[in-house]
Structure formats: C-alpha cells, structure tokens
C-alpha cells in the first residue's frame, strides 16, 4: 500500500507537499484542476518499471498496447512555471504489511533533460530500515553512489546509472558489498508495489452481445475494462475453490445498487461463445440490451474482486452513467472490499452522492476516519492546490470549499421566493 505521495514541478503541481494516502483515498475537485496528475505520477512509474528496456530512465509512453498513459515529452510533464528549475520529482512511501523482505520503504527520484532532449534521472534516493542510498548524476552522465550521510561516494562512473528509475545497477549493487543486498531487496519491493497498481480509466468499452473464451484467466482488466468480461468468464467456467467468486461479488453489488438482481454467464448452445445475462424483476436480458450504466460499472465491480489481495486500484470517475443510489453504493463497495481483501482504493470522482455516503459511513462507524483520506483539488494561477478535507468522527467536513457541490439550500430558497412572487402577482 502507498502511504505517502509528493510531486514537485510535475504537470499542474509546483509542490504537493506530503500527501497521506490511506486504504481509501478520494480526490475531488473542479475539471482540469490537477486531480488526474496525482494518479498519473504512479502510472508513469509503473509503466517505467515494467519497461522491457532496463536502461530506460523514464518511459513517457506512446505504445498504445503496452503503456498505461502517453505523457508526451519532457516539456509536457514539467510544470510550466518560469520560476522553477527544469527538473521534476516524484516520491512515495509504501507499507506492504510484512508481505516481502522489505515491509516499509521510501522512493524519491528527480528527473531532468539532456541537451539532446532525453529524460534522465538526476537523483535517485531509496530508504529502508533506517538506511539511505543515493545515486546522483554528475558530469557526462556519470553517477555517484552515496550511502547514509557519507560525504564521499562509494563509487562513481557510467556503470552506476540507475535502471528503470527504481533500481541501482548491478555494478552499484556489487560495489555496495554487504549493503548491496538491502538495496536490491528494496528495489524489488518498490517494483512489487508498482506492479500491484491496477488502473481503470473513465472511458470503458461498450458491451458486445457475446464473447469467445480462450479457457484462461486474463492478466488484468485493462485501463478501459476490456478484460472484465474475460475475468467473469474465467470466474464462472474455471473449476476451483474460487469458482464464481468474482461473478457472485459482482452480482451482490449490482443488487445493492438497485440496477440488477444478479449476473449470469450463459453459453450459447454448444458453441464456444458466451453471453452475459442480467436478471432483474424476473426478466433476463443480454448485457447489450440493458442500460449503459450497468456495463460501465461492471469493470469497477469486477476489478474489485479480480485484483489480487493487497493491490492498489486506481479509479477515475467510477460513478459514470450511474443513477444517484448506485453512486452512493460505490462508497460501501470501496469500504467493504478494502477491509475484506486488503485493497487500497485511490478514487478520483465528481460524485456528490458517493462523497455524502462516505460521510454517512464514517458517522455510522462503518468506515474509519483514520482509514479514509479526502482531498479537494483546485487551480490557483498556473499551479494546482490541494486542500485536505478535515472530517470528524461524525462525517462532518469542517473546511469544505464553498460551492463545489452547488448550494442546495440556496436553490430551494430561490425556488420558494419565485413561487411566492408568482402567487402574489397572480393574486393567489
């Protein structure tokens, strides 16, 4: 689980300062305020860490099949503030609750640009178990390796260039001798945390009438939810202890949302093609023939049960095309699945209904304020600004920004005023 994030000179952000990340973290704010940039920073590191080229410093994307996001060029990532240096940095802390050799650690990396336009690591800092290891870029592309508070480097040269932003080179590991194993374990722990990120974007594929099945389980659901149906087919058709686990979980939440009674995987005759059947009020319909809201929320529900335990699920606008009651139920989904499966949710949303239900769950003590973080993002001049919403044990927000969700009371008063004016004018 990621427990802290900080961005400096990254896209809309001059400096986020330290952002606390909890099992359930919600990002709210106006359009184009910078919410997505917070999410994208972790996606940038994930696609860099899984790059087939270990010498890459930062994978800005461009491969539509393998990359999560296309960041463009260095200039597109750098915050466009004339007063800042031409570098940006990303840092985070993680805690995997004792799953790996390194249970807690920190990552910080700053990036610059060469004269040829390439993005390069300027400084990589890894921390764990009270130790600190640095790789600092010097002249002509050489890197110095420093440990803890050492003023003199352990080594210096081109052979010590970091790999994929997160790892020290084999030469650096060797020169660190006994400390090399700790650095290697730390890099593996960081890579594992990044690999556990699962991202579902706001644009999801429309359903087909039927689907083939290759008799295997997909690796992930994809950023557009393209693998969600494959996950459902595998859940229903592959025998084992977890058969129908995903299908049953999805069905349960479709029912709680009031959009369906259950979901069924049905084979078409004796063919190798299958259809998804949505049951509601005694009527069975193909997924293609029901409202778009069902198909759009389906990947959200699938990934919640398909993601391996301990994953970090990043969601953008999970509420899209859902009616208010269903949007509210998403809050309960996140709380329940996070607790049940050890899943971390980072959610960007515009939904007042989702947010209000979270307040209620905190007030009911169904959700813990300590396990929940909510942030409001707004634009201030050229940079984004982050406001931590101060929520008490009764779910009340003490510092809610004015007017974001509109003014419901003010609208009611205005309607009443207009009604009285019309009645008076008509002599009623």
Secondary structure layout:
Blueprint: E1 2-10, E2 13-15, E3 19-20, E4 24-29, H1 35-49, H2 74-77, E5 88-95, E6 104-113, E7 119-128, E8 131-137, E9 143-147, E10 155-157, H3 170-175, H4 178-195, E11 197-200, E12 211-212, H5 228-237, H6 245-256, E13 262-267, E14 273-280, E15 283-286, H7 292-306, E16 312-316, H8 324-341, E17 344-348, H9 352-363, E18 372-380, E19 383-388, H10 408-425
Parallel strand pairs: 4-17, 4-18, 11-16, 16-17
Antiparallel strand pairs: 1-2, 1-3, 1-5, 5-6, 6-7, 7-8, 8-9, 9-10, 12-14, 13-14, 14-15, 18-19
Number of folding domains? Answer: 2
Range of helix content: 25-40%
How confident overall, as mean pLDDT? 92
End-to-end distance, in Å?
Answer: 63 Å
Count of alpha/pi helices: 10
Output the structural class.
alpha+beta
What is the multimeric organization of the chains shown? Answer: single chain
Q: What is the number of beta strands?
A: 19
Biggest sheet layout: 9 strands, antiparallel
Helix and strand pattern:
EEEEHHEEEEEEHHEEHHEEEHEHEHEEH
Q: Provide the low-confidence segments as ranges.
A: none
Shape: globular
Radius of gyration: 24 Å
């Amino acid at each position: 689980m990621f427990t802290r994030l900080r961005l400096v000179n990254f896209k809309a952000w001059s400096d986020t300062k330290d952002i606390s990340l909890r099992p359930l973290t919600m990002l709210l704010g106006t359009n184009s305020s910078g919410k997505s940039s917070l999410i994208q920073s972790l996606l940038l590191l994930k696609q860099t860490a899984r790059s087939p080229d270990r010498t890459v410093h930062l994978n800005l994307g461009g491969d539509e099949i393998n990359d999560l996001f296309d960041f463009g060029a260095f200039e597109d990532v750098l915050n466009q503030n004339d007063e800042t240096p031409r570098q940006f940095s990303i840092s985070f802390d993680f805690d995997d609750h004792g799953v790996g050799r390194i249970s807690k650690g920190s990552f910080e990396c700053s990036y610059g640009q060469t004269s040829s336009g390439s993005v390069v690591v300027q400084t990589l800092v890894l921390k764990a178990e009270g130790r600190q290891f640095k790789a600092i870029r010097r002249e002509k592309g050489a890197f110095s390796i420093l440990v803890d508070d050492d003023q003199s480097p352990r080594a210096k040269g081109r052979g010590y260039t970091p790999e994929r932003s997160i790892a020290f080179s084999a030469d650096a590991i060797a020169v660190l001798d006994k400390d090399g194993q700790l650095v290697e374990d730390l890099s593996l722990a960081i890579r594992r945390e990044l690999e556990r990120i699962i991202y579902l974007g706001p644009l999801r594929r429309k359903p087909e009438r039927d689907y083939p099945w290759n008799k295997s389980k997909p690796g992930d659901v994809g950023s557009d939810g393209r693998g969600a149906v494959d996950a459902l087919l595998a859940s229903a058709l592959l025998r084992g202890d977890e058969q129908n686990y995903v299908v049953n979980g999805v069905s349960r939440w479709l029912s709680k949302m009031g959009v369906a009674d259950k979901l069924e995987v049905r084979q078409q005759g004796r063919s190798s093609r299958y259809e998804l059947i949505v049951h509601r009020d005694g009527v069975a319909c193909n997924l293609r023939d029901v409202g778009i809201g069902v198909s759009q929320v389906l990947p959200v529900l699938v990934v919640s049960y398909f993601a391996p335990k301990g994953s970090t699920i990043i969601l953008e606008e999970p509420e899209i095309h859902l009616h208010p009651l269903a949007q509210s139920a998403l809050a309960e989904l996140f709380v329940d699945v996070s607790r049940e499966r050890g899943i971390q949710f980072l959610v960007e949303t515009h939904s007042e209904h989702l947010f209000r239900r979270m307040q209620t769950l905190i007030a009911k003590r169904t959700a813990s304020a300590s396990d929940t973080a909510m942030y409001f993002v707004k634009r201030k001049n050229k940079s984004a600004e982050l406001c931590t919403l101060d929520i008490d044990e009764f779910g009340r927000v003490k510092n809610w920004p004015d007017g974001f969700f509109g003014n419901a009371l003010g609208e009611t008063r205005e309607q009443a005023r207009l009604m009285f004016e019309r009645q008076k004018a008509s002599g009623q």
